[in-house]
Design goal:
With 451 residues, the chain is α/β, with parallel strands linked by helices. It has 12 helices and 9 strands.
């Protein structure tokens, strides 16, 4: 049995004992204060049963019908408890006012044993309040916290009833009804506060403190992240955050995913235990090329855009770009998509006078196999000679695969660490061109450079 359910079950047993004590003593002595406290404890029993049920339901894991879990069951129970408390407190208040205004005071027998019963009740209330408060803090349970507040109200009400009995015993017969009215008002205030808190949660009222902490954590991320929207709600002490951020439209998918991970970590660090969902959107493009790329990507059929170039031709600006589409697409369909791309760019970037699209097929998976030993010995010797002639050293790694279109060479070059990336790229391009010129049976060459 979970700690929350065990605490709720103890409350059920305690409520049963207190109802019996207060009701029997109240009927025997005619004390409205004791009877009101018995009714109050009756609501405790209902509340404890609701809490026991709620924490049992809330403890269930998320399922297909409840993907966010069952945490709000605790708040439903607490709301039902507040309604019961409000109804009982109104009834007690009416009865107390009738007794106070009656010209003939009610006959209340404030015996010593009735006072002894109230002392016992006060001790039990104190123990219940302490146990529930500690469990609520440890488990973060709203239902147990509401029970602790309820028991605190019971404790104050029991002290008021004890005071009323002592004053009645001292010759003030209306003191018992005054104590009952005090209990009723106290319970009504507690019920209103409890209802407001749980309605806020059930209506998904934003937790302002947690939201401010999450917003601050996102704004502290470096490099800065454009936060477009942050929505938060809570249930059973757990926070849920929906975050929308924007990144550059030219950023790669992996880069967007990494930024989203940074946001998730920041929010969970600021609001521990929170459930965070991050949605990434393209931000406002900066340069003309970025704006053209963002516009082209709005066409649904487009799979990839690259080599976006901005050209100044005379007094007008032109844009050229490569558009990748599925290779099996009919040419007329591909041309229609390219036309939509050009129209999207022209509409989004009106300062562009012309748009030129170059259509390319997306690369399909190509079957390849390793050639047998000795089949490419001569080719391997030629490639090694070319590399050594350009770089002064043999390649660190060289291997071949055979495809339907010819051989594909993969080679790794070791270059000086101080050499720039542009120089390394130029060197690799030179080697690639020489190999393909000297060995036409090699269909493609992939050159990897490293220090």
């Amino acid at each position: 049995m979970s700690p929350a359910r065990r605490t709720a079950l103890v409350s059920v047993g305690a409520a049963c004992v207190l109802i019996a004590l207060k009701l029997v003593t109240g009927l025997a002595t005619g004390s409205l204060g004791l009877i009101s406290e018995a009714a109050h404890s009756g609501t405790d029993l209902v509340a404890a049963l609701l809490t026991y049920f709620a924490v049992s339901v809330a403890g269930r894991p998320a399922d297909e019908s409840h993907p966010y879990g069952h945490d709000k069951a605790e708040h439903l129970a607490a709301l039902a408890e507040s309604a019961i408390l409000a109804a009982v407190s109104v009834y007690i208040a009416v009865q107390a006012i009738l007794r106070i205004t009656d010209s003939r005071p009610s006959d209340v027998d404030a015996t010593w044993w009735a006072i002894g019963v109230m002392v016992i009740v006060i001790l039990v209330d104190l123990a219940r309040m302490t146990a529930s408060a500690r469990a609520a803090r440890r488990l973060g349970s709203p239902a147990l916290r509401s029970n602790a507040l309820h028991f605190a109200g019971d404790l104050v009400g029991s002290l008021a009833v004890l005071g009323g009995l002592l004053l009645t015993r001292a010759g003030h017969p209306r003191a018992d009804a005054v104590a009952a009215l005090f209990v009723a008002v106290l319970v009504l205030i507690a019920a209103g506060r409890l209802a407001r808190e749980n309605v806020d949660v059930l209506m998904d009222r934003a937790p302002s403190l947690a939201e401010a902490e999450a917003r601050g954590a996102i704004q502290a991320i470096r490099p800065p992240v454009e936060l477009r929207r942050l929505r938060m709600r809570q249930a059973a002490g757990r926070h849920f955050a929906d975050v929308v951020i924007a990144i550059s439209p030219t950023a790669a998918l992996a880069e967007g995913h990494a930024v989203a991970d940074d946001v998730e970590r920041a929010v969970r660090g600021a609001v521990p235990g929170s459930d965070v969902v991050v949605h990434v959107e393209p931000g406002l493009p900066g340069g003309l090329a970025d704006r053209a790329l963002a516009a082209a990507l709005t066409v649904p059929e487009v799979r990839e855009i690259h080599n976006v170039s901005v050209l100044r031709v005379g007094d007008r600006t032109e844009v050229s770009l490569h558009v990748k589409l599925p290779g099996r697409l009919p040419l007329d369909h591909a041309h229609a998509i390219a036309t939509r791309v050009e129209a999207a760019i022209a509409a989004a970037v009106p300062e562009v006078g012309a748009v030129h699209t170059h259509l390319e097929p997306l690369a399909d998976t190509t079957e390849a196999e390793r050639p047998a030993d000795g089949q490419v010995a001569a080719v391997e010797t030629s490639v090694e000679r070319i590399v050594e002639g350009v770089t002064g050293e043999r390649p660190r790694e060289l291997r071949f695969v055979r495809t339907d279109e010819g051989l594909v060479a993969f080679l790794t070059l070791g270059l000086e660490p101080e050499r720039s990336l542009a120089q390394a790229h130029e060197l690799g391009g030179e080697i690639r061109a020489r190999i393909r010129s000297e060995r036409p049976e090699i269909h493609d060459v992939f050159v990897h450079t490293e220090p």
